[in-house]
Amino acid sequence: MTDIHIRTIGTTGRITLARPKALNALTYEMCLAIEAALDRWRSDPEVACVVIDSQGDRAFCAGGDIAEMYQTGTAGDFSYGRRFWADEYRLNAKIFSYPKPVVSFLQGFTMGGGVGIGCHGSHRIVGQSSQIAMPECGIGLVPDVGGSLMLALAPGRLGEYLGTTGTRMSAADAIYAGFADLYIDMSDWPGLIAELEAGTPLDALTDAATAPPTGAVEAAQDEIDRHFGGERLADILNSLRTGESDFAAKASDAMGRNSPLSMACTIEMLHRLRGPSLSLPKALELEYRFTSRAMEHGDFLEGIRAAIIDKDRQPAWQYPDQKVPAAAVSKMLMPLGKHALTLEEDKMQTRKIGFIGLGNMGAPMAANLAKAGCAVTGFDTAVTAAEGVTMAETAAAAAKGADVVITMLPNGQILRAVAAEVLPAMAEGTLLLDCSTVEVESARAVADLASARGILCVDAPVSGGIGGAAAGTLTFMAGGSEAGFRTAEPLFEIMGQKAVHCGGPGAGQAAKICNNMILGATMIATCEAFALADKLGLDRQKMFDVVSTSSGYSWSMNAYCPAPGIGPQSPADNGYQPGFAAELMLKDLGLSQQAAEAVDADTPMGARAFELYRRFVEEEDGRGKDFSAMLPRFATRRRE
């Protein structure tokens, strides 16, 4: 193949990208050839390491060759692009986990697909001309080829900045951000490669390295963290637009050229990835959820047209006002079920799941598990069903033969009764995963019952509401043993975006109670503030613009604004139809006060929030409305 030169010299497997006129852009055939060489050298005792370099001075690899994707995609054939990405991501994973050293020499541009080839090895060398970037949002994609892993690991909020702006990193910047390891003068590269071919130890690379010229990114870290720490795209854009520095203006301009949908999904991906469960397979799987949909539902084809085909640089993006609904982000990042990306290093066996409680939350959670390939048997006392779920006549029947039994139930009394029924039907070593929100005492009592039978037990109440259950973006607060949490973790990744192991039995419920006590109190304060602003003659939008980017920032304000037409889409824009019902908030606040009484904790704000929601639900018109419907309540009331 003329586009790539693969050979063995001495003790070194050599791969040279050979398309300098095309900036060494990676074709599908080149990916397959590299993978075949790596597979061959893996077990070859004569090959001690692999060196990847490229011809020409301008680029190591400026990305993937996307012309074929455009041609097939505009013809309505999305399978070629999906196959390309799946095979490319498999190659990226092999480089990352390769058992022998992989040394890459990254001159000039290293972008997109070039990052996947050059930045996952053990020794990543940069020099005077190196410029590394993840500019995918500019063509309607997201940072992929495992780039989201490095962005999630970058210091502070550098990942969001680099991913949404496509900023090019110098050699120093790339080392600081974690995309490269060593700076070596480029004039020394040919001699070092020759030494490696002759069997010289890799220490020669470290010995040749020097400090790179100063970069710009590290100096801007404080400002990056300040502006890019928001929960969603709108938060970041609001912060930049109210900033007065040259940095804020330049970053805002850069983001103004990129696909809003891609940027919003990039931010969401990085937030989901950060945490103890971060891994390359997880990053690649999440990237593939987006890229497999990018041509059909995203901005990818329009991005290529504007940048590569017509070259008018005037893409007609979706959401040109940069207000991307949360539902659009969720749609692009939903699990792919049987079409999910599989890697040789990350193949999961199908699990048998029993799911007890198929209400507003349980039914979509169970459906997402079924879509992901799990065999789900469900039971609910109401005659309900969930897509892809086989229904059983009893809870015990649903639990029989299951690897994991998941419960989503209304209260602790029902949880205890269900546990008493299903635990005798479960085999030793299986897992009972309770996602209900109940008292800490009930969670611990059920854990004791499970432990007595040799069954793992995790209490993992959720945050995210009905929308999060449907979209697979829930947050799980888990309590139980480390073994139980690790067993549940793959299921958390299907049903949600984040799972935190909070401690032993009952810790998940404790975390949920504390979280929702804060949520209830801050929502009341947010609603009170809007009602006060109305009476002071302050425009609601102006108030939001100030508070959402200053010390009044909160989830209740920025992500779930109770004022219709202000901020991101929320239940307020749908007549306060519940995403999280007021009566459920009342339940959770009641649990917090029970817990406070049990441990003699002073929680006056929590107690006051409980009383206000009790009155709202039981004496006023709050039942059946979203918990943010406190705003019209306060707006029509006078000081008591």
From TrEMBL:
It holds the Pfam family NAD_binding_2. It comes from the Bacteria. Residues 352-503 form the 6-phosphogluconate dehydrogenase NADP-binding domain. Residues 13-332 form the Enoyl-CoA hydratase/isomerase domain. Residues 506-631 form the 3-hydroxyisobutyrate dehydrogenase-like NAD-binding domain. GO terms for molecular function: 3-hydroxyisobutyrate dehydrogenase activity. Its EC number is 1.1.1.31. Pathway: Amino-acid degradation; L-valine degradation. The keyword Cell division does not apply. InterPro entries: 3-OH-isobutyrate_DH-rel_CS, 6-PGluconate_DH-like_C_sf, 6PGD_dom2, 6PGDH_NADP-bd, ClpP/crotonase-like_dom_sf, ECH_dom, HIBADH, HIBADH-like_NADP-bd. It catalyses: 3-hydroxy-2-methylpropanoate + NAD(+) = 2-methyl-3-oxopropanoate + NADH + H(+); a (3S)-3-hydroxyacyl-CoA + NAD(+) = a 3-oxoacyl-CoA + NADH + H(+). It is an enzyme of class 1 (oxidoreductase). Belongs to the HIBADH-related family. This is 3-hydroxyisobutyrate dehydrogenase. It comes from Roseobacter sinensis. The lineage of its organism: Bacteria, Pseudomonadati, Pseudomonadota, Alphaproteobacteria, Rhodobacterales. The gene is mmsB.
